[in-house]
């Protein structure tokens, strides 16, 4: 060859400086040799006995067979008028700075050129027809077929981080991927979970449950004293005063029943009204006090007033009624035996006494009950 360099392993020359001379490139397609037809038309050089090409971006098959490609010059007179008819079969014409060259670029989509013939791209690779070599499938895609012109994007629930993959990997538990062609998965957000692999979405926590961590595989039940009425929540809510919850994993709180109350948050039970106090409504945070000559019933749901005969003999709230023992005792029992301030008589007494105030003794008739024992 005139003014060319033919070596045992490589041929060197800057294509733009060749002019009418010829340059044959022999690049073995094994790491890290340059690929024979992957070059920049303005700045390409295979150095003498080098193992790489300068000023190119390697993008081709690395691990398979060798490719032998000839790059021939067209005459200088044809510069600017490059036609594929000037080249041999399986080649096309490319205009350089100072000349035209023919390169082997005639293989169809899904194939690459080797020693004058076209071979199918291997699995994990593709050729869309824009080049004459096969490229690795990019991250986020795969190809398990030979001779492909494109790679398949990883479907939802999967991902791929590597080049040239034959398959995609499933998202792990606690994660998901709702898009195609992705290189990673997303963690399930708070209030959601995923217990299975390869999923395209996460599952919201059910009512009565919550999850405050991302990437979770399950939700937790609301503890006693709390609840959650909505799905997909990161926390539970405290039961308000007037209510309680004694069971885990519930979607609501229970109201305090009449005769009871609860004045605090996040409680597991209600408190019964104390003596002479009552509550006739559910879900209350306090009890109401019976007034005057009234006693609370056993259920603590209402106050019962004494009849006019029963308290007509009362003076200054010192005692109730002017009844015989059996009448007074029966009345006290009817009231639930819990009337605050009423003194129950002994068998020989004829009176039911009313305490003016707690622990206050009544002085006077010695037959009266000792009022320091008021209930």
TrEMBL record:
Superkingdom: Eukaryota
Name of the protein in its database record: Tyrosine-protein kinase ephrin type A/B receptor-like domain-containing protein
Gene3D superfamilies, alphabetized: Tumor Necrosis Factor Receptor, subunit A, domain 2 (2.10.50.10)
InterPro entries membership: Growth_fac_rcpt_cys_sf, Tyr-kin_ephrin_A/B_rcpt-like
Domain Tyrosine-protein kinase ephrin type A/B receptor-like span(s) in chain numbering: 164-198, 225-263
Taxonomic classification: Eukaryota, Metazoa, Spiralia, Lophotrochozoa, Mollusca
Pfam family, any one: Ephrin_rec_like
Organism name: Magallana gigas (Pacific oyster)
């Amino acid at each position: 060859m005139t003014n060319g360099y033919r070596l045992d392993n490589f041929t060197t020359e800057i294509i733009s400086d060749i002019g009418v001379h010829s340059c044959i490139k022999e690049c073995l397609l094994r790491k890290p040799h340059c690929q024979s037809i992957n070059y920049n038309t303005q700045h390409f050089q295979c150095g003498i006995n080098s193992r790489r090409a300068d000023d190119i971006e390697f993008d081709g098959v690395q691990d398979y067979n060798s490719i032998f490609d000839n790059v021939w010059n067209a005459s200088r007179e044809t510069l600017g008028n490059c036609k594929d008819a000037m080249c041999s079969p399986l080649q096309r014409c490319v205009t350089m700075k100072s000349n035209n060259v023919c390169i082997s670029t005639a293989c169809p989509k899904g194939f690459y050129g080797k020693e004058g013939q076209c071979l199918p791209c291997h699995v994990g690779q593709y050729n869309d027809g824009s080049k004459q070599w096969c490229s690795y499938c990019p991250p986020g895609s795969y190809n398990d077929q030979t001779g492909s012109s494109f790679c398949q994007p990883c479907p939802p629930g999967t991902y791929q981080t590597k080049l040239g993959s034959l398959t995609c990997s499933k998202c792990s538990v606690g994660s998901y991927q709702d898009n195609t062609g992705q290189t990673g998965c997303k963690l399930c957000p708070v209030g959601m979970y995923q217990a299975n692999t390869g999923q395209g979405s996460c599952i919201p926590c059910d009512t009565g449950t919550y999850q405050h961590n991302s990437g979770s595989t399950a939700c937790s039940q609301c503890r006693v004293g709390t609840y959650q009425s909505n799905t997909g929540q990161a926390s539970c809510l405290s039961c308000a005063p007037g209510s309680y919850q004694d069971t885990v994993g519930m979607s609501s709180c229970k109201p305090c029943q009449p005769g009871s109350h609860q004045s605090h948050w996040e409680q597991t039970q209600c408190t019964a009204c104390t003596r002479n106090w009552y509550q006739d409504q559910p879900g209350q945070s306090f009890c109401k006090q019976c007034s005057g000559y009234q006693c609370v019933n056993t259920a603590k749901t209402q106050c019962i007033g004494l009849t006019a005969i029963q308290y007509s003999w009362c003076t200054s709230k010192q005692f109730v009624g002017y009844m015989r023992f059996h009448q007074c005792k029966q009345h006290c029992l009817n009231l639930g035996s819990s009337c605050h301030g009423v003194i129950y008589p002994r068998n020989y007494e004829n009176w039911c006494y009313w305490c003016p105030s707690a622990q206050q003794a009544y002085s006077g008739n010695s037959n009266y009950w000792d009022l320091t024992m008021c209930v």
